[in-house]
Amino acid sequence: MARIKLIVLLALVSHGIHAQTDTLPPINKKRLRNFVIGAAVGYGATLVTLNQLWYSDAEKQAFHFFNDNGEWNQIDKLGHFYSSFYFSYGFSKALQGCNVPERKSDLIGAITGFAVLVPIEVFDGYSSAYGASSGDLLADAAGAVFYLGQKRLWKEIRIYPKFSFHRTDYAALRSDILGDGLSEELLKDYNGQTYWLSIDMDKFFMRFPKWLNLGVGYGAEGMVYARSHQNIEAGFDPPYRQYYFTLDFDLTAIKSRSKVVKTLIFLGNMIKLPSPTIEFSSQGTRFYAFYF
Fold this sequence. Notes:
The chain folds into two domains: 1-157, no CATH class; 158-292, no CATH class. 47% of the residues lie in helices and 17% in strands. The chain is built from ten helices and six strands, in the order ααααααβααββαβαββ. It has helices at residues 2-17, 29-55, 75-97, 102-115, 118-126, 134-154, 175-178, 182-188, 228-233, 259-268, and strands at 159-165, 193-199, 212-221, 240-249, 275-281, 284-291.
């Protein structure tokens, strides 16, 4: 929840101050200072809130790592990748809005996009209920590199990570872990989460419609417990992975001068909208007229 709130905040700030110009004027030091102070205060408040809500009930112990790379079929790792990418994107846009050169903004944005997620691993590392995860840190770094790499290679974003969610019956089986109610399930029920890479095809093939993308997705289902053997020992079927191929919509093809509309486009393009999709898994091949 903390990561989602921060991404939305960055979207509002970055699109509120960002203006497209061919030649940037000198860095707006006042605007930059206000952004840095505002972001630091907001981030600090978020960390304090997160520590109280998420970690206050767990006992503290010496910092330690915990290998969770085999859990939840790595859906949680994709969440870290997704968050880091959009933190990098949002910070870069905000800095460009302060007239910081784009190349420098992208580098600072990517470093910051990774760095803002590191304290979560520190909290985990001191908590007896969790433990810092090297896999999470690697996923955080990968998301930042995926953003910066595209900007260095193409000077633009051509492949967008996206997210979709649908409610499942698994949450009711372990509501304390998988969530109780839509807001909790959205974050905790990995069975309903799908992560996508939406490819902006017209950037590669000029005759492709600007509003239409092709996408690939990954999800998993049957995860009542974190690991496959735990599901089997509890009498459930083993979890299985799901792979998707889909048509997607590129909302950035919508042009507007309105800051509000631009912000809505930015936020909307983080989500994979319902569209025709093919699923491939060990359970067979399925076609959905509209998958979300």
